[in-house]
Each structure stands twice: as structure tokens, then as C-alpha cells.
Amino acid sequence: MIFLIVLAIFLGTEVIKNVPALLHTPLMSGSNAISGVVIMGSIIVIGHARPDDYLTLSLGFLAVVLGTLNVVGGFAVTGRMLAMFKKKK
Q: What does pLDDT average to over the chain?
């Protein structure tokens, strides 16, 4: 498992480093979509959790918060990147 984690970190770093600047905006949109799926999945997990299962409720709530932060941050970065391509007045 540790080997897989190290390999994923190395591979992810290499892939992100070699992405051209024109592809960053579409990749951010894809990342936002994945984060939206995480939010929906965590809401479903919270909805199906027993009321006395505090670990599941806590982890579900944490997933909702972190996923929401990721989506909001992604939209902010995407908006700023798209603003760079607008013509100046």
C-alpha cells in the first residue's frame, strides 16, 4: 500500500507538472465535477448513517465541508484564470 501511495504521488506530480497552461481551466472544471460527486456521496452516507454512529456522521460532515471548500476554491481559481483571457478595456 505504501508503494502505491508513493507511486500515485510521483505520477500525479509528474502529470500536473507537464500539463500545458491552456489545459488548466478544463482540468479545474473536471476537478470541480469530481468534488461535486464527493459532496453528493458524503450527503448520501450521512443520510444512511445511524443516529448513534458518530464516526460515520463526523467523517461524512468532514467530507461535505472539504468537498465544498474544494469546489468553491476551484471555481474561484477558474474564474481568475478565465479573467486573464478577457480583453482589457
A: 84
Structural domain contains residue 62: yes
Residues 6+ away with beta carbon under 8 Å from 74: 28, 29, 31, 32, 35
Looking at residue 22, what DSSP letter applies?
G
Is 12 contained in some domain?
Answer: no
Q: What is the dihedral of CA 6, 71, 16, 12, to 10 degrees?
A: 20
pLDDT by residue (tens digit) across 12-49?
888 777 777 667 667 777 777 788 888 999 999 999 99
Q: Which domain holds residue 87?
A: 30-89
What are 58's three cell numbers?
A: 463526523
Q: What pLDDT does 15 receive?
A: 79
